[in-house]
Amino acid sequence: MNVYVKRENWDGGVWFSLPASEEAREELLQDLARHHPSAMLPFAGEVDCGEEGLSHRLGRCLAGETLFFRDHFVLWNRLAETVDALSKEEKVVLEAALRQEKPGSIEKVMDTLNHRQRYTLHPDILTYEALGRYAAERVMGKIPDELSGYMDYPLLGSMWESSLGCLTEEGFVESGKTGKQEQKQMDRKEREEPVFRVRIPEKKRHGRYLLVILPADGQTMEELRQESGYGQLEEITEMEVSSGFYGLYEYLPPGSTLGELNQAAKEVQALAEKGPVERRTLLAALEAEAPQSMEKACQVIRDYADYEILPVKSLQPDKYARYLLEKRGIKIREELEPFFKYDAFGKEGIKKDSPVETSHGIVRNRVRAILEIGRDGKPFRWYSPLTISCYNGKDGTFPDILSGEKAVPLQGRIHTLIEKSMEEWGESGLADGLSNQLLLRRVVSMQPDVVAYAQDLYCILDIQTKGELNDREYHALMEEWKEMMALGWGRQFLESPMDYQGDDAFLGFWDEENGKELYVRTEEEMEKAFSAMEFKM
Asked: What residues have CB less than 8 Å from 133, skipping those under 6 apart?
């Protein structure tokens, strides 16, 4: 597999073959430096894996993704090794899985790659008519011959395609369907996989990492402590985590230590030893409870058997009322329906059952009510420096940094650009982009903008939460915001310059190459910092 490696503020790029060694990585960086010196991290422009369709899909998922940030180089190598070994049919399935899930990072692409067995290729289904016949049999069973001629199978196939999978030239790829034997194998493989694989930087040798498999017993942790050079190994929070139990890490309290992850891993392993664990139910339970400590998260894991996902699609009182009636085998006669208070019955049922709507479905606890997170917390605002780099066309290596009286008049234009960038986001704004699902549950909205403060321009982020964040959640949210500014939402402004007096000006919300003294501060911290500055002057 080859990736077209690019750098900021340079139209060119270099094709790089993967998997690659550390030596090849260093040669690439030197080659890039010869073409265009820059401190910015190299990122992917295109991907070529030998199959046009899959190459295009991987390119769309991974365009702009860095190659050497955190453990990305390891993940890119692993992706290349796996993709290169796939058969043509397996590549078709992977392309369809990527189309369905639309992963937007190397980590999420690897997640899709690792569970591609959930997708099934039907090489005999090549048209919407054939897909319609397949869909009809799934929904209604065998259609009687005397009715078959009246079915619009092509229309049915086109309507059902997105919910069942996707149609390709090589056949229909169905999502989430596996045979009983395959499902047993997948369940067994998931139980045999370690709950977490953790990479931590070695203290004794710079640039080297130590792999920690969790759960680990006390003796193993002691051996790892001696090998790593960390006196308080279990207190480490700087680590790269992947989960054999797909998605679990993102549903645990943010900022967890290695020791706390080990606690959760032991609980999951103990649960799996009792019998099959349905991933969807466990993650829904964690999302609904949104535990703020690992102790509470472990309690949710232990109580897994108390949770169930309900077969209802929304918590509207009238729909919940109909679900309750159907569950109890009660049918309201048609002539009595106008007089039955569905809303009141549904509200009472919701109050009693305390179900919670999650990204995995509506979940409830059979034993006790799931506590509400709380009312909206007090909104707060963060400030961070806005870096405006202007390249005058004569010397594109060292830009002019616009600030003060040059920057402030651009506030209106920058506000319009930010406003336009938010059109594709929902009411929650950038909160929808949070990777930690428990933060996503507690953060109601994150809305960015630009403001003039102390005669200069600053990026601001207005945050509304549900309930109060604890210290760990607060700092984890700040780290996610920095990453959004540098590599996520903010990257688009570095890639698309605005015009400034005939020259290209690039907006950097977390520009580590051109920005100076980058920080995220509250309003109180800003006032204190500038008051101290005025006092010194």
From this structure: 143, 153, 157
Predicted TM-score (pTM) of the model is 0.65
Backbone angles phi, psi at 517, to 5 degrees: 50, 55
Q: Tokens in use for 262?
A: 């080990």
Q: What is the pLDDT of residue 178?
A: 43
- What residues of the chain score a pLDDT lower than 50? 178-190, 535-537
**What Å distances lie between residue 74 and 34, 71, 488, 527, CA to CA?**
25, 5, 20, 43
Contacts of 27 (CB under 8 A, 6+ apart): none
DSSP per residue over 172-206, as a string?
EEEES---HHHHHHHHHHHHHS-SEEEEEE-SSST
Please state, in angstroms and rounded to a whole number, the distance separating the CA atoms of residues 145 and 137.
12
> What pLDDT is stored for residue 535 in this prediction?
41
Is the distance from CB of 122 to CB of 164 less than 8 angstroms? Answer: no
What secondary structure, in 3-state letters, does 353-401 show?
HCCEEECCEEEEECCCCCCCCCCECCCEEEEEECEEEEECCCCCCCCEE
Instruction: Identify the three-state secondary structure at position 141.
Output: coil
Cα–Cα distance for residue pair 44/67, rounded to 1 Å: 7
Backbone angles phi, psi at 519, to 5 degrees: -160, 165
**Whole-number Å distance between alpha carbons of 34 and 27:** 11
The pLDDT of residue 311 is 87
Two tokens at 42? 């190299």
